[in-house]
Every structure is written in structure tokens, then in C-alpha cells.
Amino acid sequence: MFMKQMKFLLVALMTVLMGMSVTSCMNGDDNTIYTGPAFAKCTNYFPATFELANGQKLVVNELSMPNLNIGEIYFFYYQFDTAQQPGNSQTLDVTLYAGSTPTSISAKSTEGPEKAADYNEATAPLYTFNSDTSTQPGILFDQYLVIPIMYWVKVESTDEKQKEELNKHSFILTYDFDELASGSTELVLNLNHVIKDGSEETVTRDKYTSTYKAYNLSSVIYAFKQATGVEPTKIKVNAKTNSSKNSLDGAANSTWSETLKNKLNYKELFNIAMKLISSPAKAWEEISMEEDRRKVFMAFVYPMIGLCGLSVFIGSLLTNGWGGPQSFQIAMTNCCAVAVALFGGYFLAAYAINEMGVRMFGMPANAPLTQQFAGYALVVPFLLQIVTGLLPDFRIIAWLFQFYIVYVVWEGAPILMQVEEKKYD
Fold first, then answer.
1. Span 25-35, pLDDT tens digits
2. What does each C-alpha distance from 302 to 86, 264, 296, 339 come to in angstroms?
3. What is the pTM of this model?
């Protein structure tokens, strides 16, 4: 029983890609049955309904499981007939494959993520982690970290004893933010394998098995933001591994990392724009602590250009009316013209600043830094374009406010660009 389960999970580890889309089907000429694995969140238990990462829902009509926990992550195999249901349907009626039962892989409340301490420090290694023989971890629903875990166990003679053995193993995800610098963007976590044996018990574990764990990262991301002032853009997980024996002696340090998807946060976008206008020096101090200079693209410049284009589009429709395709064509033309002008102007300004820094101030060429500086410095033109796009009559007033960009740049140059006043004799 145990070896069968171990082989089943090993096959899953070797064949399942964490980020795969289960909506793609391979239909043969005669076989229209699709079989696939699912890492899915339970959204209902009657009928049993699960949501995949792409938003697709799997409804298992044959299954009524009141012990399902809504919101937890489950793993199972399912199948359906592609001749009766398109694979890209928003909702699929599926059956469980070969007696597969949805198994919760959500980490227990005692498994974190939590602050590192003596009691949750690793007492045993993993067999392997993020290696060529195991599936890599992955982010699910932009909230859960799903980790495939292979670890050393003792093979017992009965299912009951085997269950007792497996229950001794915990996989605790920990963090330590005590020495985390303000503005840091990398979230570092440690996966600790903790075994709770009796005080006088000596157990030999010379076989390995596997499982999955899904950790809800909401609380740790909130704690990270409280400590640094920003959300993480990269996550790294460390673990002790030993594929020779179940001992920390000689264990290696294994690491997995991934860049998180940039989520557009309009609240933060508005906050940084207002800070640059009301208190430029303070805003530039915060910007200078950003480790990823290219964050300005997705976090500020591109959203701002999009908002400028949208305002011009809406303003043009309000001015020329909504009737007929001509007004829509004019609005689209004006929108694209503004977007292209701002896009080109931004990169031209960044290039000019970089060249000026090299030739006039003897600074080393640093394109990412000048792109960051130019992007945030354009806050004044961006905001004025949004206003005049919706209210063209304010264009004259906007021209006067354009000069405020001089003050924003003056405050930012010494802080971000490290430009010092040059004295002449």
C-alpha cells in the first residue's frame, strides 16, 4: 500500500508541471477522453467544485464530500470527454480518474509561514528539493506557494503504523525579517523538515516518499510589506537536502527562486505620484531604496501612459460625441498619438540624461538608473496630460504648471543620481 502510494506520487512529481494549463487537450482520432492532474481550490462541496489557477471550474457531480474545506488547495486526477465538452469551457463536468480522491495539500496552521524560532528549526533534511528529479515549486492564484516535497521515511508493516510515521513529519515554512533593510524586494523563506520522535526512540529512515504542500503567503507578504514598505518582487526558498541519508550531517543547501508577477496597484501608483508632487525630496528618498531599477516600467511609466491615453480617448468622445464610427476613429487616433509621443519622449529623455551625466558630470553610464529617474520625473507631464485629456479647456493652465517639473528634477538629481553641485573658480 505504501509503496504503491509512493510510486503514484513520484509519477505525479515527474510528470506534472506546476504552471501548466489544464485546458489544453491532445485529441487522437479515436480517443476523445482527456485525463489530467489538477491543483485546484475547493469552492463548493455539493456538488464538489474546484477552481483552477486559470479560473476554469471543475465540477465532480459524482462526488459529494461534506468534509471538503472551502478555500483549501486539493490535488487529484480527473477526466472528461472532449467530444462532449470543449476543453476551454469555463466550467467542465468531470469524473475522477481511476479512483483518485481529492487530497488536501494545504499546509497545516502549525506549518507556517511563521517567524523563525528554535522550535521550528529543521531536525532532518529533505531527500531532494528543486532538483532534476523533482518538480519545481510554483505560485498558485498569486497567493499560494505549492512545494513538491521528497523526504526520508520509515516503511512500516501496516497502514495504521505508516500513517503514524507520516504524521511525525512537519514541513514548516519560516522567515526572519529582523535584519531586513527598508526597500528590500526579495522575500526569503526557509523550508524546515521537523520530525517529532519520542525522546528515547531511535528510528531508521532509509526510504523516501513524496507529498505536496500549499502555503498561503498572504500573511507573510503583509509582514514583509510592514517591514520594508514595499511588496516583494522575488521569492526565494531555502532547504537542507541529503540524498544519501536522513541526517543533517553533510546536508546541502538547496534553493529555489522565482520573480513574482507584477500586480498593478493603482493605490500605490497614486501615492507615489502625489508624494512626488507634494514632497519630492521624501519621494525620491523612497525611490532610491528600490533595488530593481527597472521596476519603474511596470509600476509607474506604462500605467501612467495607459491612463493618459485613456483620458484622451474619453475626452475626445465627450468632445466629438458618441455617434458614428468617425468619432470613435478620431478618439483612437488621438489616444494612440499621445501614447506614442509619451512612450518615445520617455526613452528619449532617459537617453539624453544618461549622455548628459557622462559628458557633463563625468558619471558612469547607467541606463537603468537614468530610466528610473526619467520615469518618475515625468510625473508632472503625466498628471497634466490626464487632466487636459479629460478637460481640454484647462490646457493653458497646464502649460504653466509644466514648469513644476524643474523643481521635481532639482530635488531628485542629488538623491537618486548623486549629482553634486560643480564649483568653478
1. 333 445 788 88
2. 36, 10, 8, 10
3. 0.59
CA angle in degrees (0–180, nearest 5) for 375-380-381: 80
User: DSSP letters along 80-101, please?
Assistant: EETTTS-TT-SEEE-EESTT--
Cell of 233: 518582487
- The pLDDT, as a whole number, for residue 29 is 46
Distance CA 24, CA 88 (A): 7
Q: Which residues lie across from 148 on neighbouring strands? A: 212
Task: Spell out where 105-202 has E strands.
Answer: 114-115, 126-128, 138-140, 144-153, 169-175, 186-195
What are the phi and psi torsion angles at 254 (to 5°)? -110, 145
Amino acid at site 227? A
Residue whose C-alpha is closest to residue 374's, from 338, 337, 343:
343
Q: What is the DSSP letter of 421?
A: P
Handedness of CA 94, 21, 26, 86 (dihedral sign): positive
Query: For residue 58, what are the β-bridge partners?
Result: 50, 92
Look up residue 347 and give its amino acid.
F
With bands split at pLDDT 50, 70 and 90, how would you rate the model's confidence at 264? low
What are 184's three cell numbers? 528590500
Report helix, strand and coil shares of the chain as percent, to nearest 5: 40, 25, 35
